[in-house]
């Protein structure tokens, strides 16, 4: 059998080491696939015989890309996929509240897709609206996504030294952003697995914000620089074709499982 490690959300290395069942599972596997370098280290420490990385596999949405709806307005559509951390989501609202886009004849539409949460109040913000789509089908999520201009990864922004989720996990929505052809801003903590992954593999597709101040700066930059957004979008599509979209991206995974 093979083991795929996507998360160890409630288990840090010290605790994993004493987990007899987990050690037996990892040690007895023919091959272990891990989503992050941190999980690869854990797997090796638990006796894995062979470890390699795995990506965020998902079906393509090529039929939707290129069919972006246009309504003649200067609306910038931002995508946030849930479940977003409330802290970073509130920071988005605070950052947008500082922008004055009236002289640019530009409006901002924030599209939130995911489990309904207590969202920040965007009603009072000039030229900013929020659409809370809630939980939708995969098909509708993809349609909403490809019709946005860029995305924001809202967390994990927790201190990775004290939060196993931040330390080990890389949100799969990163793969969705790439599949949609969207550049994105990642509001993540500096020691997180997501930070390391984006910095090493997606630096041409994304901007990393380690603080609320950086998030505000990156939002303003992304909104203002449409030509650079387009270049980053092309890079995102290239990453998706290489590492996300089925069937091609999973060829190495299928080969190793079949060995």
Keywords:
three-stranded parallel beta sheet, 41% helix
Report on this structure.
It is built from eleven helices and nine strands. It is globular. It is an alpha/beta fold. The N and C termini lie close together (11 Å). A six-stranded parallel sheet has the order 6-5-4-7-8-9, sandwiched between helices. The protein has a three-stranded parallel sheet with strand order 1-2-3, sandwiched between helices.
Layout: helices, strands, pairs:
Blueprint: E1 2-5, H1 13-17, H2 20-28, E2 31-34, H3 37-45, E3 51-53, E4 75-81, H4 86-97, E5 107-113, E6 128-134, H5 138-146, E7 150-154, H6 164-168, H7 173-180, E8 184-187, H8 193-201, E9 206-209, H9 212-224, H10 226-243, H11 251-258
Parallel strand pairs: 1-2, 2-3, 4-5, 4-7, 5-6, 7-8, 8-9
Mean pLDDT: 83
Oligomer: single chain
Q: What topology, given as strand order, has the largest sheet?
A: 6-5-4-7-8-9
Distance between the termini: 11 Å
* Alpha-beta classification: alpha/beta
Helix content: 40-55%
State the order of secondary-structure elements, H for helix, E for strand.
EHHEHEEHEEHEHHEHEHHH
Biggest β-sheet strands, sense, barrel: 6 strands, parallel
Number of strands: 9
Kindly provide the radius of gyration, computed on alpha-carbon positions and rounded to a whole number of angstroms.
19 Å
- Identify the overall geometry: globular
Count of runs of 4 or more consecutive helical residues: 11
